[in-house]
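Researcher: If convenient, please comment on what follows.
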Amino acid sequence: MFRRPPQQQYAALCYRFDPIAGLQVLLLTSRDTRRWVIPKGWPMKGKKAHAVAAQEAYEEAGVKGEAEKAALGYFAYMKKLKSGLKVPVRVQVHALRVEAMLEAFPERDSRTLEWVSCTEAAARVREPELRNLFLAFASREAAPLPQKLRAVGR
């Protein structure tokens, strides 16, 4: 049979450092199935991948911050279109450190947001590759800083 090549989306893995809880990531519910996801969307004309990820983070979760230009990783899922057709999607994920959360944003009334640990996020999402991205991100953020950076201020 014929197989479609995967469609491309861009996503933001939104994170913050809480003084008590430590590293936290933002999960939100999808509008249709109410499963736990991260902000993601289709390419936008004239915008680079990391800028699309940041735009989706604002629209879907009301967060502001700068997304890293380099991709953190990728995951795949099957997207059910309005027509009922399911298509494979490859999602390029960019880490985004949250600098502000807004009270009003476009999809506020259609989503639930929750800050959780990377381990909890990995347990809640359905996509195995996204689970692995959360766990790899936790390891990345826990890695010790290079010696020259630690020595600043001494």
